[in-house]
Amino acid sequence: MTYANRRGSIHLEDAEILEHVAHPDNQFVLRVAAPATARTAAPGMFAHLQCAPSIRLRRPLSIMRTDASGWVEFLYKPVGHGLTALSQRRVGERISLLGPIGNGFTITPDKPKVLAIGGGVGIPPMIFAAQTLKQAKEFDVTVLIGSEIAFPFALASCRLDSPGIATAAKRSLELLNEWHIPSHLASKAAIQGCHDGYVTDLATNHLHALTGQELGLTRILACGPEPMLAATAKLAQRFDVECQLALEEFMACGVGGCAGCTVEVVMPEGVAMKRVCVDGPVFPAESIYPNA
Ligand SMILES: Cc1cc2nc3c(=O)[nH]c(=O)nc-3n(C[C@H](O)[C@H](O)[C@H](O)COP(=O)(O)OP(=O)(O)OC[C@H]3O[C@@H](n4cnc5c(N)ncnc54)[C@H](O)[C@@H]3O)c2cc1C
Ligand code: FES
Q1: Predicted confidence band at 158 (pLDDT cuts at 50, 70, 90)?
Q2: pLDDT at 249
Q3: In which domain, by residue range, is 55 found?
């Protein structure tokens, strides 16, 4: 199966909050009823949420999971007043949601080995990629996750190995264990069972352990802070592995109208200005970091 996710209709939904769970270090998992978005979302896409009626500018959040019953789930960490206001909304309240937006990851069977790398608030698209691929037998998915604060997920012992991952990374996400997808965690915050370092260290070790043929069959998907994306692009170039990055630029309209999210990208035809919201948020790594 091919997951070549291109922009379709964006739905406006009056989404009821079904669950809203606070996690340590000011992180929140929000589940809302948004059936049209749940039906058409794909990994790498996001939704634009109105945090409170008094806050005009919506905030973009990556879609972390969807369910056939019609819910969509997000993980967020407030940095300013918008998401702080969202964090105060209660179960049963409704929020205006535009989604799904953007071009997600393109995942095709010619690269059946998928290495998903997520850091911080860039973790959600990797969970969604894992959820989407969990039943596709032709894909062999490994998820690597880094965080410098508590992981807002249930952790468990690794039950599935991945080539090259040191035994120091002994913990994984219970959810991904249930999906039979290996996951490994990294943190410099001395979290027990995690690799003591960056998530890209784990990725380096993993890529080192693959044969040349396996590298040719591998595709990296990544989302996270800018230094992590830059290091991932460099790694992809070093091992000559295809790599797609999901960007998290600041946005205003979120639907292509204001050019507030424009980034410079290097395309085969030359340098171009692209809007992260509708031309992205996923771009080829070499178009963002041509000199990685
Ligand atoms: C596609 C996409 C997906 C994302 N997914 C997630 C996710 O899953 N989880 C998550 O937690 N975050 C995610 N983000 C990031 C999140 O949307 C932003 O961090 C958001 O602005 C935070 O809102 P806030 O109200 O907490 O902070 P804001 O009030 O937006 O302010 C955050 C900080 O940025 C500054 N700032 C605000 N706007 C601008 C601007 N235009 N230019 C420069 N500085 C500015 C403010 O001064 C403040 O210091 C995503 C972003 C994008 C684009
Ligand atoms: S946020 Fe307006 S064009 Fe992207």
Answers
A1: confident
A2: 78
A3: 3-101
pLDDT mean over 98-111 = 95
Residues 262, 274: one domain?
Answer: yes
The protein residue whose alpha carbon is closest to atom 22 in ligand 1 is: 79
**Can you list the positions of beta strands (E) in 65-206?**
65-66, 71-76, 94-101, 106-107, 113-119, 140-146, 155-157, 171-173, 183-187, 195-196
Q: Probe ligand 2: pick from 46, 58, 247, 261, max atoms within 8 Å of CB?
A: 261
The verdict on 237 and 256 lying in the same domain is no
Examine the domain organization and report whether 229 and 269 are in the same domain: no
* Ligand 1 site, residue 258, Cβ cutoff 6 A: no
Q: Cβ(230) to ligand 2 under 6 A?
A: no
- Collapsing DSSP to helix, strand or coil, 220 comes out as strand
Q: Do 121 and 231 reside in the same domain of the chain?
A: yes
Report the separation in Å between the CA atom of 260 and the middle of ligand 1, taken as the mean of its atom positions: 13
Q: Which ligand is nearest to the CA of 249?
A: 1
105 CB-near residues (< 8 Å, 6+ apart): 3, 5, 42, 43, 44, 125, 129, 221, 244, 246, 282
User: Ligand 2 mean position to 52 CA, how many Å?
Assistant: 20
- Bridge partners for 262 per DSSP: 275
pTM here is: 0.94
Cis peptide leading into residue 124 (ω within 30°): no
The CATH number for 58's domain is 2.40.30.10
Instruction: Say if residue 89 is in the same domain as residue 165.
Output: no
Domain count, the chain: 3
The one-letter amino acid code at 250 reads F
